[in-house]
Known about the structure:
By secondary structure, the protein is an alpha+beta fold.
Amino acid sequence: MEPVREYVRRRAAPALRPWVAGCSGYREAGVGPVRHLGLPSPWMTLILTLDDPLVVERHPDPAQPGGRFDALVGGLHRTPAVIVHDGRQSGIQVALHPLAARAVLGLPAGELAALDVGLDEVAGADVERVRADLLAAPDWAARFDRVEAWLAARLAVPTPGTAPRSAPEVVRAWELLRRGARVEAVAREVGWSARHLSGRFRTEVGLSPSALARVSRFDRTRRALQAFPAAGETTRPRSLADVAAEHGYADHAHLDRDFREFAQTTPRRWLAQEFRSVQDAEPSGAGRSWT
């Protein structure tokens, strides 16, 4: 049987775009065993599997034992998860804004920092109904429609008993930090002290402001590396040092240090090892890859 490798990405519907960076669908079969790093990013990751459970060999928090999940939500983190499969996997992956966690999940993103949990544990029994709809859907477009409808309903009608949505100052600070603004400048713009901003961020986002800024820079850079030029190309950066400089790193060594912290490997080793699965084709989306 010929290997199956499907990867489909769709930008979120306009009403969802403030809170959802995008959805991707993937299916692999007959491709051989894979061990994959789920890297830090400024987005939470939601996974709804189709045919086979998601197997997490190691979570970002090493104290959390590995497990198998039919549906999973992962909080923001600073070390990679390790995902494995024996040659088969399929599902829908959503990159969710951490400040949408209260509405979609019923709790602030800070409560899930560095953790992966069953999506039904925080979002309730309708997760299984959504999965059943996905399995019955005829194609990827219909699956994306069902997931987006579920997210839209959760965002429009927050789970009863949850706290109000995040303060506009936190939303603005997240936007600025993700784009590379300095923490002190962000605190001044939103009218808070750096200490107060840090406390609110740890609760609402799960990372400190400085950590979010660093993770965001790393995420932008590693996605640029996914478009690393082939031999003979002249329209894109010709070296890792060029990519590092374009994204705010002082030099190649600076980029190496972040890779060792966030990916526990070097950029060149990651490039050599990680491009073996369908989700690594993701061109510009968000959230960690789980293939």
